[in-house]
Amino acid sequence: MPPRKPAETDGNLAKPATISDVALLAGVSVGTVSKALNGRGSLRVETRRRVLSAAEQLGFQANKAAVALNSGRTYTVGMITTDTIGRFSIPLLMGAEDALGAGEMSVFLCDARDDPIREQYYLRTLLSRRVDGIIVTGRRTQARPPIGTDLPIPVVYAFISSADPDDCSVVPDEAGGAAKAVDHLLGIGRRRVAHITGPEHHHSAAVRAAAARARLSESGLTLVAPPLFGEWSEAWGRQAVQILLGAANDLDAVFCGSDQIARGVADALRAAGRRVPDDVALVGFDNWDVMALACQPPLTSVDMELEKLGRTAADLLLAAINGDPAPGKHANPCRLVLRDSTAVPIAPLRARD
Amino acid sequence: MPPRKPAETDGNLAKPATISDVALLAGVSVGTVSKALNGRGSLRVETRRRVLSAAEQLGFQANKAAVALNSGRTYTVGMITTDTIGRFSIPLLMGAEDALGAGEMSVFLCDARDDPIREQYYLRTLLSRRVDGIIVTGRRTQARPPIGTDLPIPVVYAFISSADPDDCSVVPDEAGGAAKAVDHLLGIGRRRVAHITGPEHHHSAAVRAAAARARLSESGLTLVAPPLFGEWSEAWGRQAVQILLGAANDLDAVFCGSDQIARGVADALRAAGRRVPDDVALVGFDNWDVMALACQPPLTSVDMELEKLGRTAADLLLAAINGDPAPGKHANPCRLVLRDSTAVPIAPLRARD
DNA sequence: TTGAAAGCGCTAACAA
DNA sequence: TTGTTAGCGCTTTCAA
Hints:
The structure is a homodimer. A six-stranded parallel β-sheet of chain A has the order 2-1-3-5-7-13, sandwiched between helices. Chain A has a six-stranded mixed β-sheet with strand order 9-8-10-11-12-14, sandwiched between helices. In chain A, about 40% of the residues lie in helices and about 15% in strands. Chain A is built from twelve helices and 14 strands. The first copy, chain A, folds into three domains: about 10-70, 434 Repressor (Amino-terminal Domain) (Orthogonal Bundle), CATH 1.10.260; about 75-170 and about 305-335, 3-Layer(aba) Sandwich (Rossmann fold), CATH 3.40.50; about 175-305, 3-Layer(aba) Sandwich (Rossmann fold). The first copy, chain A, is elongated. With about 350 residues, the first copy, chain A, is an alpha/beta fold. Chain A has helices at about 20-25, 30-40, 45-60, 65-70, 90-100, 115-130, 175-185, 205-220, 235-245, 260-270, 290-295, 305-320; strands spanning about 75-80, 105-110, 135, 145, 155-160, 160, 170, 195, 230, 255, 280-285, 300-305, 330, 335. The termini of chain A are far apart. Chain A binds a DNA duplex (16 and 16 nucleotides) through helix 2 and helix 4.
């Protein structure tokens, strides 16, 4: 039988080189290799060079499991989405993944699909894998029960928030976003503002509607009609316009709870012979490019800056992992993105920002 | 000072219990605990019970790093999306994650963001973490260079495919999908079919257009006008309709390369006074609910079954990890989803399927 | 400056 | 049936 290397043909089973392989090739001990590779201790330059070149030659990559075993750190975090990953979760995940990757952390993706059983299963799995921390996200901003108590590692909630005020949650400032939308409409001279949004029991719908009302009332105004609660769809947007035109025919602006609704509203207004923005200015929420850009005209919209939010969550998690936790609810500002649906051809009263 | 437990207050630094903790509590050796927990060897029922209860009491979860270290398996796979994670990647990821989770594997999420440098960085990271396998996905179905050569672990390409025919790739049968769309249009009696799609250089656009043509020609027909290549947007769909109505005013069906295009087409046709589906039947591609359902009328569309595709990729990867690789390109059939845009009020010639 | 050896938490072979 | 021990790959004292 051949002496050394087993089954040279099936390159696919070649075991990765270990630190002893490197030591052997460099003619030193494993301890020395470890020092050379990690820049610890003091070695002769020549020795270090020899080790590095041996490692290079073997394509050596330290086995992270071994490292984890005696450092106690895995440089790994878990990301649990409580409900199905969707449009809102993606930017969150991306932002977090990006920030964590920069910190040399790898991310375990866990999709709990609205199933508490799965959620707990993933939690156990992550703990068993000794992740250094966990980010919990969800598709709604509403507070949820903590995912666990007395966990041995830090947890940060992103977008969604924990019902325990001592937990660290990073959420969009939806009320602030709604206020910005209203401010903008007022800034371009609109006074008869309507609000169309999603289901009344939906946290985001309620918060945004309340904030819009509050902001108007600060200016001594009211909504031109009570908020129209319905669903998060274009169809509802269209339908709501019919209701609205009956109730408040003289409206000059509509602030919508979502871009989808706003798009339906735009279509229905056009069909009814109202020009956007000339007769009616229109603001959406989410700044979902697919909707906002395809809308005719393109839609001014509130952006929750989800990617940045994910990044913030990740940064807070990293800080907590390093012993510097930031408990409490952190609100991230929203940003208003201006487009044609609120562009005033001849500006009667320019907004300041 | 208190005798036993250190710093009871900061529950957050409590180190997870180890197997020796369990052994101590149960009054047995670590070997016995291992056997009891893994159902190996033969133990007295009473002993096993005692160990299990001790483990339970301590909330013991085996440290996966240690397990990985001596089994050589991490029960972990990497998922690299070569381009930014988006609408197409999600269902793929979800399907794969689901199938892998069922196999007790955890998934590392890696978003390479169209950057080859990041891609190679992630590859090295994953190898260093000794993942058992890797799934590579992308937003385009076009073949791409292999992510690495002579890798020590199996790789499966999903949606995107590897340029190396010996690699394992799972792709949607886009040509088959396009054929189904055309068949359906012919089945409901349409004969003057047009095709509007994305950029000519885009692999999917080219494949779908070619397949549509081929299928028509099998029936002795041709497209009512040369395929209109443009971009993947509603605006292009609208614009293309203007061109089309000039060139082939008597068309009775449009097959579109995407749902977004199709939606633009629907809007423009309506604006031009053509009824859908009565005058012109309409089929999209992607079955993207947001577009297909919001379209007026709701859109018949080709579904690439991305989630199933992700699942298949994961299954093939698991098989490969277990020593049973399935090299080559595997085409997954598409499914035609029927909606109102091809509903024939009075069926003149019912399709068979 | 380098090597030897202990130990991280667990499994498996072997002994008792 | 149970315990002891070697070792997985690496880091880190401590000696040499």
